[in-house]
Amino acid sequence: MLQPKRTKFRKQHKGRIHGEAKGGFNLNFGSYALKAIEPERVTARQIEAARRAITRHMKRQGRVWIRIFPDVPVSSKPTEVRMGKGKGSVDYWAARVHPGRIMFEIDGVNDTIAREALRLGAQKLPVLTRIVVREDW
């Protein structure tokens, strides 16, 4: 699963996801892409599940690019623990996804397989998406 090798600080504030994506909103590698429409945090497990769904439907033909990386540590306290005693330990890693961000790109397969693969991958993600094609640009 994806996570940073090392970070400057172990824990982060929650923060908010404001505004549109200021980068990563163009097709750079493939011909088909999955683009986020709403702001959301996507966990490393969800990214991996979507990647597996896409590659399985493509039957390992073509190529898949993951354009997001989970670099935000999300902490949580164990169940049935009283308030106080500091912040909980890091539970999982997440990526902040802004509206307009390209999350996955694929190439090397025909139109119907590409669209179905991205649709299956989008079902694994907690964010509303749309499929973008190179001709749309």
From TrEMBL:
GO molecular function per UniProt: rRNA binding; structural constituent of ribosome; tRNA binding
Source domain of life: Bacteria
Described purpose of this protein according to its UniProt entry: Binds 23S rRNA and is also seen to make contacts with the A and possibly P site tRNAs.
Self-association state and partner proteins as the record states: Part of the 50S ribosomal subunit.
Name the UniProt record assigns to this protein: Large ribosomal subunit protein uL16
Cited SUPFAM superfamilies: Ribosomal protein L16p/L10e
A Pfam family this chain is assigned to: Ribosomal_L16
GO cellular component: cytosolic large ribosomal subunit
The entry's keywords: Ribonucleoprotein, Ribosomal protein, RNA-binding, rRNA-binding, tRNA-binding
UniProt similarity note: Belongs to the universal ribosomal protein uL16 family.
Record's keyword annotation contains Nucleotide-binding: no
Single biological process term from Gene Ontology: translation
